[in-house]
Amino acid sequence: QVHLVESGGGSVQAGGSLRLSCVASGYTYVSTCMSWLRQAPGKGLEWVASIITTTNRTTYRAPVQGRFTIAADTAKNTLYLQMNALTTEDTAVYYCATDRLGLNRGPGTQVTVSS
């Protein structure tokens, strides 16, 4: 059974940075597409970024392109999301998932960006 646990969230001022981590157990990242999603207050779940772990090919939602970096350490079964130049629009609960729709995701970690 897949078990995902996110960490690294917190409160930062606009322009700041955070690095999120997601550790997976009961699952291997090899030959998989892993994703980060987020849900802002009062809004639906939205896809943020994905990585193909065998090729390190990455894709990003347009508003985070150039500011966020997704990475995977397959030896540690850990997924990362480096977030720079954060804005108040990035405030959300962030989830890692084994799919782009977030059907299999962890409990999430809160990111709050203040102006």
Describe it for me?
There is one protein chain. This protein is mostly beta strands and 115 residues long. It has strands at residues 3-7, 10-13, 18-25, 33-39, 45-52, 57-60, 68-73, 78-83, 92-97, 109-114. The strands form two sheets. A six-stranded mixed beta sheet has the order 2-10-9-4-5-6, with no helix packed on it. The protein has a four-stranded antiparallel beta sheet with strand order 1-3-8-7, with no helix packed on it. A hairpin with a 4-residue loop joins strand 5 and strand 6 (57-60).
Q: Outline, from the CA principal axes?
A: globular
Distance between the termini: 40 Å
Low-pLDDT regions: none
Q: Walk across the major sheet and give the strand order.
A: 2-10-9-4-5-6
Find the count of extended strands (DSSP E, 2+ residues): 10
As a percent range, the share of helical residues equals under 10%
What Rg do the Cα atoms give? Answer: 13 Å
Average pLDDT taken over every residue: 94
Give the assembly state of these chains. single chain
**Helix-strand string:** EEEEEEEEEE
Specify the number of helices: 0
Structural class: mainly beta
Strand content: over 45%
> How is the main sheet built?
6 strands, mixed
